[in-house]
Amino acid sequence: MSRFILICCFSLTLFISGCASLEPKESDIDTQALKAYEEVKAKSKRSTNKQWTAMLDRVAPRIAKASGINYKWEWILIDSPEVNAWCMPGGKMAVYTGIMPVLKNEAALAAVLGHEVAHATKKHGKQRYARAIKGNLAGLVLGGAAVVGGQLFCKSDACRALTGLGGAAAGFAVAFFDRKFSRGDETEADEYGQEYMAKAGYDPSEAIKLWERMGAASGGKAPPEFMSTHPSDVTRRKNLGQWLPRANKLYQSSSVKYGLGEAIR
Predict the structure, then answer these.
(1) By residue range, what is the domain housing residue 33?
(2) Which residue among 139, 165, 226, 252 is least enclosed by CB atoms within 10 Å?
(3) Rounded to two decimals, what is the model's pTM?
(4) How far is CA 139 from CA 13, 189, 230, in A?
């Protein structure tokens, strides 16, 4: 088995080394993201929780609209214990059921989606994808890595889950899920995510409480993957508190106010 893996790695290295000079266009990245997302939709186990699905179906379009960006937005709720959520370039979202009990309420879901949508609207994912292309991962991204090859490159649970789906999702996973956002990207996503939730009619102060709960969910161990590259809890709370007056003005000017919304049961 180890010899087979070495052969796979060697072949994969030869294949991707000739592609490192590629400069992806934004339209190409959106196309690859869409292909990967179609794989995710077709092969992932979708949640049958009616309350959580209905909540996502109303919160996601509100956040998308609040962003002011006219992407072809989509979202799904995946039945998985991972405490995670993401938004691919071009506006393709996924929330994992493992995060729902931590959120506690609809406004916290809005905070999470706001953060992830901000990564997409500020093009953090596209920049990360481009860096992966330059870093000799072009063959994985454009060709859709073999499951074995993709697994070898993965460092995160999200990446391994998507490579396990095969096809376009496997290649995209290595570039998108294992190329971490910078601390600057994460801070920007926190700031704009809080604004998006406020514009959508959700109490922006809940963002601060959410991240406190996320920190507590780690139980003193390594933080959930969703938080792994984020600023420290102290820095995040300080930042969100500083931005709160501006977010509150947006919330007060919102035509509809949902407050904390529905509790998550």
Answers:
(1) 21-252
(2) 252
(3) 0.78
(4) 9, 29, 29
Length of the chain counted residue by residue: 265
In-domain check, residue 222: yes
Q: Are 79 and 48 in contact (CB under 8 A)?
A: yes
Whether residue 140 contacts residue 173, with contact meaning beta carbons closer than 8 Å, is answered with: no
Is 265 part of a structural domain of the chain?
A: no
Q: How far apart are CA 117 and CA 129, in angstroms?
A: 16
**DSSP code at position 263:** B
Mean pLDDT of 156-171: 64
Number of domains in the chain: 1
pLDDT at 229 over 90: no
Residue partners of 216: CB distance under 8 A and separation at least 6: none
**Bridge pairing between strands 85-88 and 92-96:** antiparallel
Q: Could you tell me which of 77, 189, 82, 216 has the C-alpha nearest to residue 197?
A: 189
The one-letter code for the residue type at 134 is: K
Beta carbons of 208 and 65 less than 8 angstroms apart: no
What is the spatial distance between Cα 87 and Cα 73, in angstroms, rounded to a whole number?
10
Report the alpha-carbon distance of residue 264 to residue 217 in Å, rounded: 16
Within the chain, how many helices (H) and strands (E) appear?
Answer: 13, 3
Q: Which residues are catalytic?
A: 116
pLDDT at 19 over 50: no
- Tens-place pLDDT, residues 140-150: 444 444 444 44
92 contacts 33 by C-beta, under 8 angstroms = yes
Residue 220 lies in a domain: yes
First-to-final CA distance of the chain: 45
